[in-house]
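User: Okay, second chain of the day. Same drill as before: sequence in, structure tokens out.
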Amino acid sequence: MNFVWLGHGTMRIESGGTVLLIDPWLNGNPSMPEDQHDAAVEGVTHILLTHAHVDHITDVLPLARKLGVPVIGQYDLMSYWGESEGIEAVGFNRGGTVDAGGIAVTMVPASHSTTLATPEGPVCVGSECGYMLRAEGKTVYVSGDTDIMADMAWMGEYHAPEVGILSAGGYFTMDMKAAAWAARKYFNFNTVIPVHYRTFPILAQNADALAEGLPGVDVKTPEVLEAIEI
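Assistant: Same drill. Structure tokens below.
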């Protein structure tokens, strides 16, 4: 599997002929060069969404139409978009599993918030979530935006992910120190990739505290558009 960070919380995951694009934010993302947008989405087969904040959904609808690919996410928002936006939307809920081109996608809890910005103000559209992805004999935990939560105990024991993609920049999510603590206490990762950092000055600018807190774990510090093969 290849993991390609596109800045902030946006991740491209490649497995065989399947390319998942998670929480696409390209336009306006200060970490993402404008002249690399087409390369970033080349070959995408599915879009996966964790929640509806603007820094995670900015390019969801334009890309779904441009690429002609389904959007997978929480039932309430997917049902709304499927009816109002004319896209192919696959809506399900926590505990459910759907197939995305051979990648089994299981929705799990997260602890954050999720609102959709409208001209009338923010509207609640379901609930935030994370995912467990199974492919190529591996299980990958995509935390989405979250703090530490007690649900991580059963998630780590039941799903036993080897790889963790953790939103760990602080301010809006758990920080690097907290993510390391959660990874030690609740999971048994071989590999951890931090995301949702370095975008703005208020977020963590490096993953040093994560690496220091996880001795024996391969903490990959991603660079935008550079593939990490696991």
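Residues 176-186 form the longest helix (11 residues).

User: Thanks, on to the next one.
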